[in-house]
Amino acid sequence: MADQNQQLNEVLAKVIKSSNCQDAISKGLHEVLRTIEAKQALFVCVAEDCDQGNYVKLVKALCAKNEIKYVSVPKRASLGEYLGHFTANAKGEIKKVKGCSSLAIRKYAPEITEDEKKIIEGALKA
Length: 126
What we know:
The chain is globular and about 45 Å long. By secondary structure, it is α+β, with helices and mostly antiparallel strands. It has helices spanning 2-21, 29-37, 53-65, 76-83, 114-123, and strands at residues 25-27, 43-47, 70-73, 86-88, 94-97, 102-105. A hairpin with a 5-residue loop joins strand 4 (86-88) and strand 5. The protein has a four-stranded mixed sheet with strand order 1-6-2-3, sandwiched between helices. Helix 1 packs across helix 5 (114-123) and helix 2 (29-37) packs parallel to helix 3 (53-65). It holds the Pfam family Ribosomal_L7Ae.
């Protein structure tokens, strides 16, 4: 199970980083909700440790209403790190990460393989 979670996290990081470079990500509550309502999201990532419980409930409920699947990520810092929202020291070590509570993937980047898409799709919840 831990190996599957690690593999999912690695693939999710790759998908988020590459989609972010392709400008195929919506982040922040307003953008994410707008993307969900327009049914433009392939899937949504939601951080479970968001300090606003209603935020997570709202995103999940809107996903269900619009038939868009989501994947839960344990920490906001992980999503922030995948997006590149961090500062690093001279050695390249991450010092401070700006968290992200949710993001929506609008399209996969070309470098994402079918196997990687299957790994993501296996973890998605309705």
